[in-house]
Write a structure and sequence with these properties.
The chain is built from 10 helices and no strands. The chain is elongated and about 60 Å long. By secondary structure, it is mostly helical. Helix 3 (51-63) runs antiparallel to helix 4 (67-80), helix 8 (147-174) packs antiparallel against helix 9 (180-192) and helix 9 (180-192) runs antiparallel to helix 10.
């Protein structure tokens, strides 16, 4: 019994989709990035509703240090299909650019869609820590020359560090103390906030 025309078309389409994926991987392995990019664009044009080639296009742009193009593709991806992972990646780009509020908004959007999204929860703490570091560095640089502004910056850094600690603690419990990156950040923050008993507790969990 012969397959129907529809099933044959579907099989051919699926095979072509897979062959484009494999071709892209082969071209990247051969470091033929120009050909690889053309393959991605061809895949996106042929399979507009399929997220695979859009996702790969985003990763390719990030690999090529094309942040603006990656952001444009992420905006397109989120508009079409607002998956938590897309918000995570876009938030990471915002964090690299020190656009803290935008990064925080993307993490909150990801967590709203997937409340147990561990990576987004950790990233939310990372954002608070990174912004706090900026305020703390301002305090250290200007404490003597601009005491009023420095005092305000110190208060803001303390608030953000405490926020980060709270979120890292939530993440620590989610992974039952198995994520050393979270434990390391907690240890550093407890030391910075002079909470030495808590620092000692976290250090013991890390085996030190």
């Amino acid at each position: 019994k012969f397959a129907s025309t529809d099933s044959m078309f579907y099989f051919a389409k699926e095979n072509h989709h897979l062959s484009l994926q494999l071709l892209y991987q082969e071209q990247m392995a051969a470091k033929d990035t120009i050909a690889a990019e053309k393959t991605l664009l061809k895949g996106r044009k042929m399979y507009e509703q399929d997220p695979y080639f859009l996702q790969m296009n985003i990763m390719h742009d990030l690999w090529a240090n094309r942040g603006e193009q990656a952001m444009a593709n992420l905006n397109e991806a989120i508009a079409k299909n607002p998956q938590p992972a897309y918000y995570l990646v876009r938030g990471q780009i915002h964090l690299i650019q020190e656009n803290f509020e935008a990064a925080r908004a993307d993490m909150n959007a990801a967590i709203e869609k997937q409340p147990d999204f561990y990576e987004a929860i950790v990233m939310l703490a990372d954002i608070d820590k990174a912004e706090a570091d900026k305020y703390f560095n301002f305090f250290m640089d200007w404490e003597m020359k601009k005491p009023s502004e420095a005092k305000t910056a110190k208060a803001k850094s303390d608030q953000l560090y405490n926020n980060a600690i709270s979120i890292y603690e939530k993440a620590r419990l989610m992974k039952n103390n198995t994520d050393d990156n979270v434990l390391r950040n907690l240890q550093q923050l407890y030391r910075k906030m002079k909470q030495y008993d808590k620092e000692k507790e976290i250090r013991a969990l890390r085996g030190f």
